[in-house]
Design brief:
This protein is of the alpha/beta class. Helices cover 47% and strands 15% of the residues. The protein folds into 3 domains: 90 residues, no CATH class; 57 residues, no CATH class; 184 residues, 3-Layer(aba) Sandwich (Rossmann fold).
Length: 389
Amino acid sequence: MNSSSPMIRTFRARDARSALTAVKAAFGSDAVIIETKQIGGGLFGRPQIEVTAASGDEPRGPTEGQSERDSRMESDMASLRRVMDDVRRTLHTNRRTASVASGTSNAHGEAEFGAEGRRVFRHLLERGMDADQARTLVDEGLASGAERATELFSFIVGEFRKRVSASAAPWGADARRTVALVGPTGVGKTTAIAKIAARALLETRFKVGLITVDTYRVGASDQLARYGKIMGVPTYVARDRAALAAAVDSTRDADLVLIDTAGRSDPESIQAQMDLIKTAPQVQLQLVLSVATGARELGAVARRYKSFGAERLIFTKLDEADGPAAALSAATVISRPVSCICDGQRVPEDIHPVTDATLVEAFLTPTPSLLPSRVSSFRNKEQVRGSGR
């Protein structure tokens, strides 16, 4: 075999992160992902991720082959994201199937609500709200004197507004800002940064700078660099405090500086990364959460990140969420405004600023029979004038 030819191996693991860790351990950060696919997994079985990767020791240079490899890497990264999303959806469906089979909804005593209360309670469960939260809201609504389903839902909308409020989008501020997107792996932080940067360039005509401290994932810095190249935005990689300070200094003329981070789960790694990020002057942390992960997981992630002082929330993957009202689990733990929501992979179309009214629309989406006319009227007025704070 020619010494310049790459080695190719296949890795299997219980999840994509473990597979990529094995790839990185074998081939280093220059590894090239050739193929990803899901192996096994039935109704109650847990699937595995199979990743075929090559060492990154191919001959380098501005050749046509390099362009082909870049194109292939982009395709493989998109394929890997799809596999990860398929696994999450499969596991979520299995959990819901097992819950229905065991009669979980009856365990929460919905029979005590009466016919009108049950309608609202079941609607909240269908929207993905945690059962305990849904029951508490219905109980409080009934205790307030609401009897009909429309009255109960109107009460719940009011309570939802107290817990989940809107703020200005990251690209909508007037003064110079440095914003770091933090959160677990797989929630779409890098894609969200690309969307925010594009909106800032197109809508508010901001000068934008991009920085990544994600040197953990294979190809993570390359992904952000590609976005930056397409948009004509300078991109910097910061592996330590000195590099981050230099990157921030290099973007001192930018109106909006966006910092991408690695998705970490263990407390020590999260703390180390937060310590690094907070060395950037006046950095604002925005916690990115995927509503496709479900209420229990969202609550757990919010508790994990609560102590680090996130000032805003961003919810992603509304298009993939079986129950977007699960967002209330995180918003209850971290009582911070929502700055924007994402509902797809397109850059920049699938990111949206929010108002208090559009948050109700996105997460609760009441059926016409549950939505009182006065709530609908109020919602329409809010959509016209906006209520971002």
